[in-house]
Amino acid sequence: MLMWQLWCALLCILWFYFLWTRRRFYLLAFKIPGSLGYPIIGKALDFNRENLLQKISSYVDKFGSIQMAWLGPIPGLIVSDPQTLQDILTSPHCVNKSVVYKAFDISIGDSLLSLEDPRWSLHRKSLNPAFGHKMLLSFVPIFNSETAHLMESLDTLVDNGKVDLIPLLQSFILRIAIQTTMGGDVKSNGNIKNNKLLQSFHCALEAIADICISPWLANKTIRQLLGKEREFAKSVLEIRRFIRALVETNLAKDTTAPALSQDKNMYLNLATDLWKRGIFSFEDVKSESIAIVFGALETTSNTVAYTLMLLAMFPKYQEKVFEEILALFPRTGDFEVSYADTQQMVFLDLILNESMRLLPPIPIVGRHTSQDVKLSNGVVIPKGLQILINIFHLHRSKEIWGSDAETFNPDRFLPRHIQDKHPYAYMPFLKGIRSCIGWRYGLISAKVTKKHTEYRQQGHEAPTCPEPKPRTLDTEHGTERGTEDNRTFSPQSTELTFY
Predict the structure, then answer these.
(1) d(CA 63, CA 181)
(2) Can you name the residues that pair with 365 across neighbouring β-strands?
(3) How far apart, in whole angstroms, are the C-alpha atoms of residue 52 and residue 48?
């Protein structure tokens, strides 16, 4: 009997000690509104991949743009207030990613997607030249060539009814990503031609999203019991084999011939050079190579797909885009786009910005505090707090964008309308210390793609191409309400991606 009393007393002491170590989180809950949920599990049962954005939307309506939430025993802050986001994203103590990014460690390994400081800073600084201005210029011919290949694929879909364009666009972006960052040959590689590699990436991305929402799936045994491990492990293995082959091919090249400075700055070349100098491990080279393809594949393909969908839904804006493109390329069959051309596509800029506002490629981003962070409003965020950066609802805030915030209107990005907005009110690729390394890459590739698709769709094709036929554009990834001029988009209009 005495032993049981001692054990109970010990458990009580440990429990109170646990609560005491988390006292600052509980005190913060008294300062910031939110829903505590159930004991131990918090609000974990409320969330799944299908309803996450809708649930958060209901919380934003109820508690505002800064709120507390508990995912199991893990305290979190959900933020869509621009000033608070600026405080967080510019703080050196909010650089590290949230615990949910463990999913990337399992599937990719340590990379820019999930590394913690100071290793992240070292990797980011070392790999920045891969997306410098000169390298971006060298990518444009590849963008043009692969977009021409995409147009041929789209021609085969004419009069075939409803088609989900996401897989086709992902294949297109995958080919571009491998060529521009890895220098890989996409024409002779069977895994690319038969879409086996794309299927592996897609399976891995699906598993990553599941683990982010359901952290218990990070445990391999649980995944095995639920029947989720076999396909996931097979896909990861296929991706790693493919990337390893590219790395080994790169290392086997004759290094005696002098390389162009441009070639030295190719992503894979930079990574292998860092390995040779002892800065990266061989695992770092493979992980970073996989990560950059992951990032380009999901975000750029979604941006292009959503923009195509929106322009199809709003033909008056599509016509304006075509008029701008026709002014820049008046000659029939002039399909080559230069970097200078992309800088003159002013209205297309408005279209892309509004598309990424309404349907952001990265709707939610996670961070956690490595030290206390004091916000502009005087509230101190304690060390160890998880933070969800709610870009989706930031971009749809009626306080920022007006009563028509859920309506597609590219004119809202005209200088006279955007100049008074908070600098952190719009950030499709994040801002601050840990912004997206390839955001310029994504925008240029999207512009080149849109030029070709719009030019072809309007019937101004090269003489060697077949006569244009009416196209039906459909997507399974969005829902809309209302008439053409005032259609609004519900929270399920975008897929869930964590970066």
Answers:
(1) 43
(2) 389
(3) 6
Report H helices in 91-178. Answer: 102-107, 119-127, 133-155, 166-177
Closest CA to 242 of 293, 180, 169, 299: 293
pTM of the predicted model as reported, rounded to 2 decimal places: 0.85
C-beta separation of 203 from 231 below 8 A: yes
The tokens for 173 are: 């972006």
Distance, in Å, from the CA atom of 371 to the CA atom of 97, rounded to the nearest integer, reads 13
Burial class (CB in 10 A: 0-12, 13-18, 19+), 377: exposed
Q: By the 8 A CB rule, do 371 and 93 touch?
A: yes
Nearest to 135 by CA among 13, 273, 269, 296: 269
**What are the pLDDT digits (tens) for 150-195?**
888 888 877 777 878 888 888 888 889 888 888 766 666 777 777 8
Query: CA separation (Å) from 325 to 36, 330, 331, 450, 460?
Result: 52, 8, 11, 10, 11
**Sign of torsion over alpha carbons 460, 464, 466, 467:** positive
pLDDT tens digits along 94-122: 999 988 888 888 888 889 988 998 999 99
Structure tokens at 51: 């309803």
Spatial separation of the C-alpha atoms in residues 268 and 274, rounded to whole Å: 10
Q: Which amino acid belongs to residue 469? A: K
Percent of the residues in the chain that have a pLDDT greater than 70, as a whole number: 84
Q: How far apart are CA 221 and CA 216, in angstroms?
A: 10
Q: Comparing C-alpha atoms, which of 368, 365, 366 is closest to residue 25?
A: 368
Confidence tier at 483 by pLDDT (50, 70, 90): low
Amino acid at position 495, single letter: E
Q: How far is CA 108 from CA 56, 112, 254, in A?
A: 28, 10, 29
Q: What is the pLDDT confidence band of residue 209, given thresholds at 50, 70 and 90? A: confident
Q: What is the dihedral of CA 158, 159, 163, 168, to 10 degrees?
A: -20
- End-to-end Cα, the chain, rounded Å: 54
- Within 10 Å of residue 248's Cβ, how many Cβ atoms? 10
How big, in percent rounded to 5, are the helix, strand and coil portions of the chain? 60, 10, 35
Per-residue exposure over 213-225, b if at least 16 CB sit within 10 Å of its own CB, e if not: bbbebbeeeebee
Q: Tell me: pLDDT of 444 over 70.
A: yes
CA–CA dist 171, 192 (Å, integer):
8
Instruction: Judge whether 487 and 408 are in contact, CB under 8 Å.
Output: yes
Write out the H or E segment, with its range, that includes residue 389.
strand 386-390
- State the Cα–Cα distance between residues 178 and 294, nearest whole angstrom: 11
Q: Are 355 and 83 in contact (CB under 8 A)?
A: no
